[in-house]
Specification:
By secondary structure, the chain is an alpha/beta fold. It is built from eleven helices and eight strands. The strands form two sheets. A five-stranded mixed sheet has the order 4-5-6-7-8. Strand 1, helix 1 and strand 2 form a beta-alpha-beta unit. GO terms for molecular function: 5'-3' DNA exonuclease activity; 5'-3' RNA exonuclease activity.
């Protein structure tokens, strides 16, 4: 039973919340013994060319990938696209659309954060983001990083759960995002994402397969939507994930069997925004050869 040979979900610094270069991710995979990998940046395919070459040099099989934000019946979802033709213009148009909206949303998030009682400025955020690819797009994790490292907020009650020993201290930056900036939370700023069906079509039209990412986190309050989502034309479910405990993994694996879908595995590694998540941290309970065989049915170059 191989637990750390396949990791199909990780983020480079071409994601708005990723830390490492594509080449650095490949090196981490090599160190962990990963043999099949994919870099799946948020709404962006710019890591693929570099990652593909680095993986070839390292002797690792590489699937071009992306993670796309989309919506279904008012609920925000993430869909992974694998084996895509990343030169397709649709992906660059997608990136441009999300970037333009995210720039406006970032200013709204800043205002909402100030309304919580934190005295931070646009210049503060610009300084934090100056070396990022998405320089004008700020995330909840970035607000957390700034606030948690400000000495004047060491004793702020809103931040205490995210400090050492606190109830949300395991992954403080991303937990702060989930608690304050995610859909339905106090500092959320709406971005109009494409529909699930539109994104499935985009992925299929580029020669790829569409996989529902970590449903245990995105559907935690909306499990009634899972069946209609699976009937929308998806090819797989990310069953094995750092977000899923054993019961959730068993449940989603059962749905793969029921709907004849491909189960995939991915750590969702980002770096500093999720310090407890490691490359290969996927809790996979099926044999790697079985999963590789499933991938091979779609992509013969993966075996």
């Amino acid at each position: 039973m191989a637990k750390e040979l396949i990791d199909l979900h990780m983020h480079s610094y071409y994601s708005d919340d990723g830390e490492y270069s594509p080449t650095e991710l490949v090196q981490k995979c090599k160190e962990r013994g990963i043999t099949i990998m994919s870099i799946t940046d948020h709404n962006c395919v710019r890591a693929i060319s570099e990652g593909q070459q680095a993986a070839k040099d390292a002797g690792i099989r590489f699937l071009p990938g992306i993670e796309i934000d989309c919506t279904f019946q008012g609920v925000n979802l993430h869909v992974l696209g694998y084996g895509i033709d990343y030169t397709n213009d649709d992906f660059y148009l997608l990136e441009k659309n999300i970037e333009e909206q995210h720039m406006h949303a970032s200013l709204q998030m800043l205002l909402s954060t100030q309304e919580l009682g934190f005295h931070i400025t646009e210049n503060d955020m610009a300084e934090l983001a100056k070396n990022n690819y998405w320089k004008d797009c700020w995330t909840g994790e970035m607000f957390a990083e700034l606030l948690l490292n400000r000495p004047e907020y060491n004793d702020h009650p809103l931040l205490s759960p995210y400090r050492s020993g606190g109830t949300r201290a395991d992954n403080p930056y991303v937990n702060f995002y989930w608690d304050y900036y995610a859909q339905g939370k106090a500092c959320h700023a709406k971005i109009i994402y494409p529909s699930l069906m539109q994104i499935i079509r985009t992925i299929h039209n580029s020669g790829g397969i569409a996989v529902l990412a970590h449903p245990g986190i995105n559907l935690q309050n909306h499990y009634e939507l899972l069946i209609p989502i699976l009937n929308a034309g998806l090819d797989g479910i990310e069953v094995f994930s750092s977000y899923h405990d054993a019961p959730a993994t068993e449940y989603f694996l059962g749905k793969c069997h029921e709907f004849h879908l491909l189960p995939t595995c991915g750590s969702d590694f980002h770096g500093k925004t999720k310090p407890t998540v490691r490359v290969g941290h996927i809790n996979c309970t099926i044999n790697s050869e079985e999963m590789a065989a499933g991938l091979n049915s779609y992509f013969p170059q993966v075996n």
